[in-house]
Amino acid sequence: MKHSFIPWLLLGWIGFFLMPWYLLEDGFWSFVWLTDGYPSDLYYAPAILQGILGDKLWLLPLALPLIAPLRLISLQKNDPRYSRYLIFSGAFGLIYLMSQGFAIGISGWQFVGLDTLFGELEQQQYGLGYGAMLCGLSFLILLTTGLAATGFLKGDVFVTGSIGLIVALVGLFVFFPVSQVLISAFMNNDGVFAPTAFFGKLFSDNIWSLSCLSDGYTCGTAWNSLTLALLTATITTLLGLSFALVVTRTGFRWKKFLRLLTVLPIITPPFVIGLALILLFGRSGVVTEIVADVFNIEPGRWIYGMPGVFFAQVLSFTPISFLVLIGVVEGVSPSMEEASQTLRADRWHTFVNVSLPLMRPGLANAFLLAFIESLADFGNPMVLGGDFDVLSTEIFFAIVGAQNDQGYAAVLAIILLFFTLSAFFLQRHWIGKKSYTTVTGKADSGTYMGLNHGMKLACYMTALPWAALTIVIYGMIMFGGFVQNWGYDNSFTFQHYQDAFSIGWGEFGVIWEGAAWDSLWTTLSISAIAAPFTAIVGLLTAYLLVRQQFKWKSAFEFGTMLSFAIPGTVIGISYILAFNVPPLELTGTGVILIICFVFRNMPVGVRGGIAAMSQLDKSLDEASLTLGANSLMTFRRIILPLLRPAIIAALVYSFVRAITSVSAVIFLVSADHNMATSYIIGLVENGEYGIAIAYCSVLILVMLTTIIGINVFVGERRLRRNVSVSASTTSSSNSGPSLKEKHA
To answer: Where is the ABC transmembrane type-1 domain (predicted)?
Structure first.
């Protein structure tokens, strides 16, 4: 009889008996002990040797939950003892592992009173490593397998294990670090619990002032952020829909180029877009000087403040809306549009009454993502904000500025989280419980309904000028890498690229002489590792939210969005507070950057997956299960191939954001793991704008190449044989004459 828990139990044995229990001095990825043997210091040894030969006896009880399940090999799965043993083993192992990890640190007991109960502890404990990680995973799967054996979630081991794994990961890498920062909101500057200080900061005039409505001064940061986020989300959603309609519902010749062009703004560090806008529209900008000469007006400074930040955010976040909406627009069934036209509805009424309502999940998710991105954006307000203060920049200055008020930063983060959660619940209410299914197991060979003349003209007039502006801005960026001093001395030079990316030849081969190579290789490797993990976790979460029914699903969905709601600045600080000491000692490593990127960008995969999966009929799953496939095979063979747009969106966005992220990276980089954005900011601070722009240009080309490769590797989703666009009022696939022709 096959028991599904046995491979996971073996994994726990490997962690406990073979793998080093604590982090190695050479870092998390070091395997030096495998080749050099065990040194005299048992710091490198597995848990069993730490407990027997060393002085860490508290590790030995972890052997109990690894031995107890052996009794189950001779039992049937329907035996009540089967589930009880697994649940006990998994729960005891997890609770004990976490308890001993947090109770003992590098200076002994970590909590007051433990020395009274257990006596003085002279031993110390370092950050947990491979052995603890494998044992923890083993205990978790044993627990979820036991829950499935009781009939939980219809006894589906894959679904139960997936929910348990995601809950554990989100709890460990989202809720735990964020809680470290939020707790400080109730502390005064001396670290003493003071709830009155919290309410004093919460209702500060700097946050809620409405003086801009009366005397002309700026409003509080909360109102500034909320207004900016609402405007940005609305405009980016409309622009994203226009781009999606041009690509899918018109005969526009340069569709592939337009699709690629819409991705450009998200593959550039934010401050570079801000700098390009300043050189175009600033007081001495190219466009500003031309307009001033033609109309004989005084050059203004409108680019600094809310107009400039709003302009930059719309330019930066429209691609997010497009990436979410393109799959949803493609997923609308042509047969439904043809049925509407057969009933004499014209293309405008068909679009408004049939197509647009079916796009509602995509529109809601695009709006939500743009809203959250605007609230959490740090780079654009930093460059173009001027006197216009927003929550994200105020949080940054509260932490690293002269005031050094971590409690005030935590209060601002709570307000930002409140805005985000409000948008989240309003979005859920707007979508409601209606069905948006358009992709079923039945054949669908209709043609997409083309846009009528007015809609086509509106989409062209909206999308194409915006695309032209994007080309101009990126032309300015690429141009800046080939001039001596951008905006002042525009003489041609290759010196910036030579300083950053020169290559030499030595006795042993290629020598990467350029100053930027080290940070580039680090950035690409970390981003390449983080991207697939982000897509896997995000799409698996979307599958559980859309396809499975379980208790506390709303809380589960909220937890997956929390990391996206908190600004990167707070995420960076929270990771330092949570992971700088045992049991999870990760600061200064590449692992902490990977974890940060995965759980910071995971909501994009979740929202894109939910929008795309809402259109897939559940009969597809049921047919697969009826034919004997389990949930894992159904997810892998049926669902994933139909989610290619969502997979591309998750991979592209997570890879790009890992490269271009600024706010969280500033706090998490180290000398051994210096990311590109941190390196570029250093160049800008030193006034080396040419090298910084040259570096950005190389990053843009690298990311463009990667995006093209991801699209080719994942492939194109084929929902129907015919993907052409119908230009007539009635579909060309109808075999008979139109109603008007019959009447004539």
So the answer is: 222-427, 520-712
